[in-house]
Amino acid sequence: MADRYLSFTGTAPGRFLTRRLGLPQPAELRRDTLDGGLLHLTAGKTDLGLAPVLARTGLTRDEDGRPAAVVLDATGVRDVDALAGVHAALHPVVRSVAASGRVVVLGAPLDPADHHQAAVQQALEGFTRSLGKEIGRGRTVNLVRLTDPCAAESTLRFLLSPASAYVSGQVIEVGAAGGGTEPDDWALPLAGRTALVTGAARGIGAAVAETLAGQGAQVVVLDVPQAEDEARRAAERLGGTALALDITAPDAGERIAAALPGGLDVLIHNAGVTRDRRLVNMPAERWSSVLDVNLASVLRTTDALLAAGAVNRGGRIVATASIAGLAGNAGQTNYGASKAGIVGLVRALAPRARDAHGVTVNAVAPGFIETKMTAAVPLFIREAGRRMNSLGQGGLPVDVARTTAWLAHPASGAVNGQVVRVCGQSLLGA
Ligand code: NAD
User: Fold this and answer.
1) Interface ipTM above 0.90
2) Which ranges of 308-332 does DSSP label H, i.e. alpha helix?
3) Most buried pick, 132, 216, 286, 350, via CB within 10 A?
């Protein structure tokens, strides 16, 4: 599972050799602290009122010209001339952004009544994705479209922190205020909340459960009965409880609701399986088992839990898609279909769940994550999967977990219907 090439390129001889041979030189990502202050730039006229929100993130202002976080407010850019302000603001500072630093571009929602504004605001997307591909040194670039910076506070905190180490090239839309609540303690935002994670005995799900517990949640570790011992051990470590249940059971939603009489605040649909085969060789059973675990069970349990009122108001549902569902992948017609289905579910249900239940629905779409699942991939395919992204390496389960925790955050009520890739800006489906 270890990425030996990444360790090698981190040494002086490794750097020398890979540079001489013109090989990729991925940077070790900083996942604990960022080294430097915050630089707040603007392009075009803006009255966003961002400064107080940035001040609350705890990041200090960049004093020495080596920022670890750069925020460019381009919400006021309405024409091509003003777009030049994006170049003018970032061109002189990009080189000085610290390794593993963050660039966050802020844009406005596209105005359908003004095709000039829509054109240049859309231009920010191409700009962000291109800069993400060239910036290097473990640095990330993301675009947030927003109208109210207060509603985007949890999103800005996440994107400007080490927690978003493997999230780059993303466009995230944050709605207007409403639906979110500021936690008493930003370090323990999930205190007093119950979170259920499916498929949490191991891999990404175990990391999600651990991260949510670390943020104060009472976690329920759900996994198949065959993994009950593992699930129980994981739950004990986290001070939570285990629930042995095959999520494809027709009454899984009802059984979860019965096990949690106080209802759920956070529901993470993480359980997933692969049964790869090209379509010509794929028996119907391989097709249906993947569709059943990855999509049908998510639809069924979500419907049952919402109908039973078992997801509390202010609740968060996060489902797990995959870049295979966005880009497609040879040998994965079943898996790609199931994960694309998650995207459709999230986009359609999000506004209705918000209006009817006060619940948000979002998805994470992991790329290549270092788990048992990807360790089993043949060497050359695995190496290609690992390197073919802007950060030149695979992500870790904790990267998906922290992204999930941001979507599950009580203050993320204005983030709804989003599909956020945790893929280091994978070239697949870019
Ligand atoms: P994993 O195989 O390590 O873990 C999956 C867990 O889900 C296991 O504990 C398994 O027992 C459980 N599970 C499977 N079927 C279940 C069922 N019917 N009911 C309850 N639990 C069930 O997988 P992972 O790599 O940790 O992946 C987690 C999720 O992330 C999956 O949805 C996967 O498709 C998705 N994903 C993973 C990657 C990656 O690179 N690892 C990439 C994209 C998406």
Assistant:
1) yes
2) 323-327
3) 132
Cβ 11 vs Cβ 147: under 8 Å: no
d(CA 235, CA 293): 22
End-to-end CA, the chain:
25
Report the phi/psi class of residue 129: left, alpha or beta, with left for phi > 0 and alpha for psi in -120 to 50: alpha
Pull the structure tokens for residue 394. 């695979």
Minimum-distance ligand 1 atom for the alpha carbon of 231? 9
> Which residues have C-beta atoms less than 6 Å from ligand 1?
198-199, 201-205, 223-224, 227, 246-248, 270-273, 293, 320, 322, 366, 368-369, 371-374
Identify whether the C-beta of residue 206 lies closer than 8 Å to the C-beta of residue 397: yes
| Options 127, 335, 368, 406, the catalytic residue | 335
Distance 397 CA to ligand 1 centre (A): 11
pLDDT digits (tens, 9 = 90+) for 169-207: 999 999 987 667 889 899 999 999 999 999 999 999 999
Ramachandran region of residue 329, left (φ > 0), alpha (ψ -120 to 50) or beta? beta
SS3 362: strand
Spatial distance between the Cα atoms of 330 and 347, rounded to a whole number of angstroms: 25
- The per-residue pLDDT for range 333-358, each reduced to its tens digit, is 999 999 999 999 999 999 999 999 99
Is residue 5 annotated as a catalytic residue, yes or no? Answer: no
Model confidence pLDDT, tens digit, residues 60-108: 998 889 999 999 999 999 999 999 999 999 999 999 999 999 999 999 9
- Point out the ligand 1 atom lying closest to the alpha carbon of residue 271: 7
Distance separating alpha carbons of residues 395 and 68, to the nearest angstrom: 20
The closest alpha carbon to 391, from 21, 16, 12, 31, belongs to: 31
Asked if 25 and 7 count as a contact pair (C-beta separation under 8 A), the reply is no
What phi-psi label fits residue 260: left (phi over 0), alpha (psi between -120 and 50 degrees) or beta?
Answer: beta
Q: Is 49 helix (H, G, I), strand (E, B) or coil?
A: coil
d(CA 132, CA 164): 14
Q: pTM for this one?
A: 0.96
**237 touches 207 (CB < 8 A):** no
Amino acid at residue number 347? R
For residue 401, give the 3-state DSSP assignment.
helix
Q: Which two tokens stand for residue 231?
A: 């699930």
